[in-house]
Amino acid sequence: MATSARESALRVAKRLDEVGFSDIVVIRNKVMELRAAGQTVHAFHGGEPFFETPDAIKQALYAATEENKTRYAPSSGIAPLRAALVDKLRERNGIEATADEVLITVGGAHALYCAFHAVLDPGSDCLLFSPYWTPIADMIRGTEARPVYVPTSTARRSGITTTLEQLTTPETRAIYYNTPQNPSGVVFTRAEAEEVAQFAKQHDLMVIADEAYEDLVYDGEHVSIASLPGMAERTISAYTFSKSYAMTGWRIGYAVAQEPWMTAMRKLVLYSTNGVPTMLQWAAVEALRLSPDHHQKRLAEYRERREALVEGLNTIGFDCEMPAGAFYAFPSVTRLSNDSRKAAAMLLEKAHVATIPGAVFGSQGEGHVRFSYSTTVAAIQQGLEALRRLT
Ligand SMILES: Cc1ncc(COP(=O)(O)O)c(C=O)c1O
Question: What's the rounded Cα separation, in Å, for the pair 195 and 7?
């Protein structure tokens, strides 16, 4: 049979044509190379908590395994975990959800992936505040929708509604709303959350809320947009155990939504991972039992690091706003180069200070680099010293 008339089947699905890999990996490799060559690297490029997973959580994993809680669980998550999350959502996020409105996912990333796939059609537009967490634009493109960038600082300065209005098209279906933000550390205020909510209601849009850093707010308050009047029905909220409990490698998070979104996301989980490992879910129940002191103590430690790094950067001459949340600082590096990739390369090669170029987080991040201050205070001081020598 003639095959010349049709394209070869030996090609990747077109849906993935526009989906990229993050160049954060390139930086990670370069850091490993330097270390392998015996060089000291001042590592500010990561996105992991500085502390280890609390012992009680690890013990709960061992116990669950010993007790043979190792069989298939319901693909949406075990009942005790979903029940504990209902309480957490009510008490800490002001969200009234039922257990059926909670879905356990393989980290926050999987919750977001399912959310975008449940909401966006090919050809849809999705608004996202920028600079943004790198994978988001690719997740949106993976649904064959179009990411539409909302410059966060312009929106905050000139008005969120006006800025969103200028960028909204007849194809707009959703707003990706991340607070506290990676990479800028911006925490949207309650008034700003209300404005975004009002806009979503007026324009009949969904909101995909990313609350990965909900427990890391130093100035102001964390407002879950789904808790605002009329928003629970049009919001999918994505959460993770990664940052609050130092469980990045465990890969566990959850999505919260009403119908019809929940059924759609359940299908996505069922046919992708068929759920999260059962014993990990039992360990996550234990995480939710940790006393609120856990978060308070960590927050105080992060605050100390934030101040050490940001004050140091400003003293050296890298203009840096004090971030209100998360564990990143996002200083300007235009004194080194307007091209943040060049500036980050210079910092790495000349001072062995590893950061992430702001351009990786969208063109609105250009002229900046991202430092994570999730490390020891001593490591921050040593990194600052290396920068001082450079300038
Ligand atoms: C803004 C933001 N959202 C979501 C995540 C997802 O984290 P995970 O998939 O580890 O839960 C991250 C991780 O870095 C993040 O920075």
Answer: 48
The answer, yes or no, to whether residue 25 has pLDDT greater than 80, is: no
One domain for residues 210 and 61? yes
Q: Are residues 70 and 137 in the same domain?
A: yes
* Domain CATH number, residue 188: 3.40.640.10
Cα 109 to ligand 1 centroid, rounded to whole Å: 6
| Residue 353 pLDDT | 96
Beta strands in the chain (DSSP E): 42-43, 102-105, 125-130, 146-151, 172-178, 206-210, 235-240, 253-256, 328-329, 353-354, 356-357, 369-372
Place 4 in a pLDDT band, splitting at 50, 70 and 90: low
Give the pocket of ligand 1 (CB within 6 Å): 47, 107-109, 133, 178, 182, 210, 212, 240, 242, 248, 253
Q: Domain tally for the chain?
A: 2
Ligand 1 atom closest to Cα of residue 181 = 1
260 and 230 belong to one structural domain: yes
How far apart are the CA of 8 and the centre of ligand 1, in A? 37
Residue 238 sits in which domain range?
55-287
Check whether residue 29 and residue 60 sit in a common domain. Answer: no
Both 203 and 243 in one domain: the answer is: yes
Count helices and strands in the chain by DSSP H and E runs: 13, 12
Q: Are residues 73 and 116 in the same domain?
A: yes
Residues 6+ away with beta carbon under 8 Å from 37: none
Instruction: Please give the distance, rounded to the nearest whole angstrom, from the Cα atom of residue 131 to the centre of ligand 1.
Output: 15
How much is the pTM? 0.96
Domain boundary among the residues 224, 257, 287 is at 287
**Spatial distance between the Cα atoms of 371 and 357, rounded to a whole number of angstroms:** 9
Pocket test for ligand 1, best of 53, 179, 239, 242 (most atoms within 8 A of CB): 242
For residue 212, how far is its CA from the centre of ligand 1 (angstroms)?
A: 6
Question: Are 35 and 60 found together in one domain?
Answer: no
